[in-house]
Write a structure and sequence with these properties.
Elements: H1 3-16, H2 19-27, E1 30-34, E2 43-48, E3 54-61, H3 66-77, H4 90-97, H5 101-112, E4 119-120, E5 127-133, H6 134-141, E6 146-150, E7 155-158, E8 163-166, H7 167-170, E9 173-177, E10 189-190, H8 209-215, E11 229-235, H9 242-252, E12 264-266, H10 276-288, E13 293-299, H11 311-321, E14 330-333, E15 337-338, H12 344-359, E16 363-367, E17 375-376, E18 379-380, E19 383-384, E20 392-399, E21 416-418, E22 425-431, H13 434-444, H14 452-455, E23 461-464, E24 467-470, E25 474-477, E26 481-486, H15 488-508, H16 518-523, E27 528-529, E28 557-558, H17 560-569
Parallel strand pairs: 11-13, 11-14, 12-13, 14-16, 16-20, 20-24
Antiparallel strand pairs: 1-8, 2-6, 3-5, 3-9, 4-5, 6-7, 10-26, 15-19, 17-18, 20-21, 22-23, 25-26, 27-28
Length: 590
């Protein structure tokens, strides 16, 4: 659907709703949409937000077709389904989930009668945005905004007291942002190189592109499909630096191809002082998957030239606004926080946005977190978005005694062991999906697990992570050379690069991309290296690694050669053309 269509709908329905109805909305009692929240650890309240500060509010309008969306996603993602790979186009997804005309008219009338200009932020208008001052937003939402500062220095404007809308409007809005959600701020771990790691012929005792390609059986495979694309995301001011990427490639990519020219930059915050997190992601994914075009999608939520906004929403909206020709089919995201950071209604809507991506053939990989079982007040607390059933959560491993050699039947030493920081466990919100039940139940029936009555985990909840990859001993070029970077932020772009190469294999043969990965992962355990040594650790317990799925490393680490065999044997699916982006020139490629 186009914005022209939306404008026509608004004009027609705003009249048909009738003047009396709109007046009743103006005078209607308000109801709480999202209640008050407590201030997360690490944040402090600086004071009331400046009344004239600019905010970009996003109204998430209730969608239609959600049952059909979930059904279709499972059908196109299950390797045993006759519809495997029959993904939808973006236009088909937008049509399926388009809000009801009456619901759109109700929200647009609410805004228009208060003199607020707004626009459709997505093709089907399921997100409506408006730019207002803090003072106007407070009146609009019956709330108070405050300025918050994180110990890292990051600042945001949020409404900790919750907010309300007229009852008629609240009934057709999932949530409004930015309001009660206070973002998680991730600090990477840097612990220097592990003394136990031996250098290989590359002379680097780090998880360099060559070592990762060797460990995960990539060999000399590089991309061939001209339209294949992969992307990393960055939030809250994490910026990309071209010179840092050039230096990384020059140092570690001698004799191999890393990336495919300069990454394309998407979003309101992409360049600036290179962030270690941002550069870790783009250096890793381009290092693993050579000759695949990469993109860097960056959103600050606080850029000087734009109203303050919810950066996560900007990313999701941009995906909906990007054509099938231009959309990357693999995204790696290192963003994470406690599962309860979003309200249940908002988290439910985020799940829908993940489903919309998956049914288009897009794979979403998220770092599982760096706090082990994430002990808070003596209980295990699940991490999100990794706990969502509709993303692929990536846990972490560390080098074993035979690293970087891949596992072999002749070796008695492990190539990888579970790393203690790797987060995992069970969702307190989402039920365990069918596609993982048999594997997870087998784990729960083994001995040596934490006491459920003490740790408080939900054995009927969605289990995560789904897979794992190396999560320590990474060397990052950002503002300064940074050795020994650790965290599942290393693992997610590593795994994403592997699946990007598998996508490339299918696209080059005129087949569909893999899309939503989880049903494939759990039905092909032999395509992953089972991790059976090590455990995650927390102040109130630990998850041990075990044969099969476990709450530290999921189904294990990816083996490209075996995944390529699986992907080749899968049904062809629906080939959706992916446009080739002419790579920008990088003068220091080696």
């Amino acid at each position: 659907m186009t914005n022209i269509f939306f404008q026509a709908v608004v004009c027609f329905l705003a009249i048909s709703v009738s003047f009396a109805a709109s007046r009743s909305t103006e005078a209607s009692p308000v109801v709480v949409v999202e209640p008050a929240v407590s201030l997360p650890s690490g944040w402090t309240v600086k004071g009331r937000a400046t009344p004239h500060a600019s905010l970009e509010l996003t109204f998430a309008v209730r969608q239609q077709g959600l049952e059909e969306l979930s059904k279709k996603l499972l059908q196109v993602s299950d390797p045993a389904s006759p519809q495997y790979g029959q993904h939808l186009t973006n236009a088909e997804v937008q049509q399926l989930t388009r809000p009801a005309d009456a619901d759109l008219a109700r929200v647009s009338t609410f805004l228009a009668h208060r003199g607020i200009s707004f626009w459709s932020a997505t093709p089907n208008s399921d997100f409506l945005n408006c730019a207002v001052t803090v003072a106007v937003a407070e009146r609009l939402l019956s709330t108070t905004y405050v300025e918050l500062q994180h110990k890292s220095g990051e600042t945001v404007i949020r409404s900790l007291d919750g907010y309300s809308l007229p009852v008629e409007v609240a009934a057709v809005v999932d949530f409004v942002a930015p309001t009660t959600h206070v973002p998680g701020v991730h600090t990477l771990i840097t612990d220097g190189p592990r003394s136990s790691v031996h250098t290989n012929e590359s002379k680097f005792g780090f998880n360099t592109p060559k070592n990762l390609r060797q460990l995960y059986s990539v060999g000399e495979v590089e991309g061939k499909a001209p339209g294949n694309k992969q992307a990393v995301t960055a939030f809250l001011g994490q910026a990309y630096g071209e010179w840092a990427l050039k230096l990384f490639w020059r140092t570690f990519c001698g004799g191999i191809t890393c990336g495919k020219g300069a990454p394309k930059l998407i979003g309101d915050k992409t360049t600036g002082i290179p962030g270690v997190e941002a550069m870790l992601d783009i250096e890793t994914i381009t290092g693993v998957s050579g000759n695949v075009h990469s993109e860097f999608w960056g959103y600050s939520g606080n850029s000087p030239d734009n109203p303050k906004n919810e950066p996560y929403m900007k990313w999701l909206q941009q995906m909906s606004n990007t054509s099938d020709k231009d959309i990357p089919t693999v995204f790696s995201t290192s963003y994470g926080e406690d599962e309860g950071s979003w309200s249940f209604a908002a988290a439910t809507r985020l799940n829908v946005e993940f489903q919309k991506a998956g049914v288009r053939g897009i794979s979403l990989l998220f770092a599982s977190g760096d706090s082990g079982p994430n002990c808070e007040q003596g209980k295990f607390v699940p991490q999100a978005p990794a706990s969502s059933p509709w993303v692929t959560a990536v846990g972490g491993t560390a080098p074993g005694a035979s690293w970087p050699n891949p596992p072999s039947a002749s070796s008695t030493s492990p190539s990888e062991v579970a790393i203690s920081l790797s987060s995992g466990g069970f969702s307190d919100r989402w039920p365990m999906p069918e596609w993982q039940k048999s594997q997870v139940v087998a784990y729960l029936n083994q001995s040596g697990l934490p006491d459920q009555t003490k740790a408080g985990y939900n054995i009927s909840g969605r289990a995560f992570p789904d897979i794992a990859a190396q999560a320590t001993d990474f060397f990052v070029y950002a503002t300064l050379p940074t050795p020994g970077v650790a965290g599942t932020s290393c693992a997610s772009p590593t795994a994403a690069g592997i699946f990007s190469l598998v996508n490339d294999l299918r696209l080059a043969s005129g087949k569909s991309t893999l899309g939503f990965l989880n049903p494939l992962i759990y039905s092909h355990k032999d395509a992953f290296n089972d991790i059976t040594h090590g455990s995650s650790k927390g102040s109130c317990g630990e998850w041990p690694s075990k044969p099969g799925w476990d709450a530290v490393t999921g189904m294990g680490t990816p083996n490209y050669a075996k995944l390529a065999e699986v992907a080749t044997a899968l049904p062809a699916g629906r080939y959706i053309p992916r446009g080739e982006e002419e790579p920008q020139d990088l003068s220091l490629l080696v």
